Amino acid sequence: MSKRSNSSNLQVLYEDNHIIIINKRAGDIVQGDKTGDKPLSDVVKEYIKDKYNKPGNVYLGTVHRLDRPTSGIVIFAKTSKALPRLNKLFLSKDIKKTYWAVVKQSPKKSQDTLTHWLKKNPKNNKSYAHQKEIKDSKKAILHYKTIKKLDNYLLLEVHLETGRHHQIRTQLSTIGCPIKGDLKYGFDRSNKDASIHLHARHIAFIHPVKKEQISISAPPPNDPIWNACV
Fold first, then answer.
1. Which of 118, 106, 203, 214 is closest to 159 using CA atoms?
2. What is the Cα–Cα distance from 15 to 1, expressed in whole angstroms?
3. How far apart are CA 199 and CA 189, in angstroms?
4. Which residue from 51, 140, 55, 156 is spatially nearest to 103, judged by alpha carbons?
5. Phi and psi at residue 229, in whole multiples of 5°?
6. Which of 70, 188, 225, 227 is the most buried (most CB within 10 A)?
7. Rounded to an integer, what distance in angstroms lies between the CA atom of residue 65 and that of residue 31?
């Protein structure tokens, strides 16, 4: 998977004094992990430091994450004032997120609400869906609808009601619709760049400091299938 070396190819969707919204590339990690690869948070810090000629350390708060193979919108806080307020917006579900997912199998219903109980297995970093609550499971709810039919695939729009580990990937796989390229959850072939066709497409919320409505869409990656979706 391609690694980002500097901030020159960072795609900034929105920026003000308090927040910065990035269109994450598939393959980037949001925060540092055991791989030791350079995280997006460090790249954004470099971007801020260079753009504003800031001496010393740059403050940046990570509000939420996207899975490594997933692309799309990631919000960071640029001030210690914005971070707890953004965290609160996520906890209270006052941030509306829309995802796009490309699948090969057509779901039985063109739109539906899926409710499962997800249990994470840390050993293989995978979640498993259950129809009923079991020990250590968490309730997961999402809403999807088919918004476009491509030659060999379908584009689903997904709205999350809960934010669980690998939730969209797990729940769509459970109804027989694994996301294109997602070997972990049952798709038959990987994508060449190890990405999956899951994209955090749109976000809407009230700015935590300015109290203005923010509504941002992120263009999906440049590949033939995503290009056919737009």
1. 203
2. 27
3. 18
4. 156
5. -85, -30
6. 70
7. 8
In this model, does residue 2 exceed pLDDT 70? no
- Which pLDDT tens digit goes with each residue over 135-174? 999 999 999 999 999 999 999 999 999 999 999 999 999 9
Distance CA 74, CA 206 (A): 16
By the 8 A CB rule, do 98 and 198 touch? no
Q: Which pLDDT tens digit goes with each residue over 72-114?
A: 999 999 999 999 999 999 988 899 999 999 999 999 999 999 9
pLDDT in tens, 153-164: 999 999 999 999
CA distance 2 to 168: 24
Which residues are identified as catalytic? 67
Q: What is the pLDDT of residue 1?
A: 43
Q: What residues contact 209, with CB distance under 8 A and at least 6 apart?
A: 17, 18, 79, 81, 82, 85
Specify whether the CB–CB gap between 66 and 21 falls below 8 A: no
Q: Name the 3-class secondary structure at 144.
A: strand
